């Protein structure tokens, strides 16, 4: 399926800026080898943050999965911002743990680190499918109707709001399990040059940039959900139908990505 021309232009522009930020980050990291400076570290963190912002615009399952949740389920703005942050920080923590354990403790070569990290991507896809199935089951058994505190009278369980939050954060954590290849490469470079803490800081800055973009997209999906509910009358059946559609979409995305990743043999970390 071909994207509309404006979206193709936006993606191309985002990739161009992403490459520029990646180049700036690498140049400033190389400059640190000749001597430390606050300015160089600041530029690295800025480039990493902007890299994360524009990197999240490109292809990736995180924003699609989280967006599907918000487009089909009742949630609060604060939950949307928190979910995006959780997904990004879990992704950053996963990258740091992978490089620290595989390259730092086990002394594996960069190619082996990337190969082993790719299996986490497979695990992420599997968890997304499991979370989607759980969401669907809870919807079908009336344990999660997709509304907030102000609608307890319409038959949904009293603790539904807490269940919604747990489901959303489970989705975010499953998405974040997939480490970013760009972050891993930065961490490998800084580890090899005795600057691992700088790499960790850059990875966190990158995660904050990703969280910003995913938050904007997630809140847009949340606004779409509210509009559909308003136009459709906001009844229980509509909310339940939307919730079930979202759970189905998330499950199918997880399964398709999982099967696609395994179909090609050994997985390869991308994005």
**Approximate helicity band:** over 70%
Major beta sheet summary: none
Number of domains: 1
Q: What Rg is obtained from the alpha carbons, in whole angstroms?
A: 20 Å
**SSE ordering:** HHHHHHHHH
Overall mean pLDDT stands at 82
How many extended strands?
A: 0
Shape: globular
Structural class: mainly alpha
Distance between the termini: 20 Å
Low-confidence stretches: 145-160
Give structural notes.
- The protein is an all-alpha fold and 271 residues long.
- The chain has one domain.
- It has 9 helices and no strands.
- It has helices spanning 5-32, 38-55, 61-72, 77-105, 110-140, 160-176, 181-192, 196-232, 236-263.
- Helix 5 (110-140) packs antiparallel against helix 9 (236-263).
- It is globular, with a radius of gyration of 20 Å.
Short characterization:
The chain is mainly alpha-helical. It contains nine helices and no strands.
Key words describing this protein structure:
mainly alpha, 78% helix, 9 helices, globular, 271 residues
Give the secondary structure arrangement, pairings included.
Elements: H1 5-32, H2 38-55, H3 61-72, H4 77-105, H5 110-140, H6 160-176, H7 181-192, H8 196-232, H9 236-263
Helix pairs in contact: 1-2, 2-8, 3-4, 3-6, 3-8, 3-9, 4-5, 4-6, 4-7, 4-8, 5-6, 5-9, 7-8
């Amino acid at each position: 399926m071909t994207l509309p021309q404006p979206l193709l232009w936006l993606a191309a522009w985002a990739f161009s800026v992403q490459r520029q930020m990646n180049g700036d980050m690498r140049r400033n990291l190389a400059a640190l080898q000749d001597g430390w400076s606050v300015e160089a570290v600041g530029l690295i963190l800025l480039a990493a943050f902007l890299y994360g912002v524009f990197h999240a615009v490109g292809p990736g399952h995180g924003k699609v999965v989280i967006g599907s949740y918000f487009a089909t389920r009742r949630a609060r703005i604060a939950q949307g911002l928190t979910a995006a942050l959780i997904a990004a920080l879990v992704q950053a923590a996963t990258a740091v743990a992978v490089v620290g354990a595989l390259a730092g403790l086990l002394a594996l070569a960069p190619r082996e680190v990337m190969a082993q990290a790719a299996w986490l991507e497979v695990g992420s896809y599997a968890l997304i499918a499991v979370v989607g199935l759980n969401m669907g089951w809870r919807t079908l058994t009336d344990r999660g109707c997709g509304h907030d505190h102000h609608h307890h009278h319409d038959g949904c369980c009293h603790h539904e709001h807490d269940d919604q939050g747990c489901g959303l954060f489970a989705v975010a954590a499953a998405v974040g399990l997939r480490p970013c290849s760009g972050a891993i490469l930065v961490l490998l470079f800084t580890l090899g040059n005795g600057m691992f803490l700088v790499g960790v800081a850059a990875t966190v800055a990158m995660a904050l940039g990703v969280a910003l973009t995913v938050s904007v997209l997630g809140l847009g999906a949340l606004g779409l959900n509210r509009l559909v509910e308003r136009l459709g009358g906001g009844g229980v059946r509509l909310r339940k139908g939307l919730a079930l559609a979202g759970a189905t979409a998330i499950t199918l995305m997880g399964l398709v990505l999982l099967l696609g990743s395994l179909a090609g043999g050994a997985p390869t970390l991308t994005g």
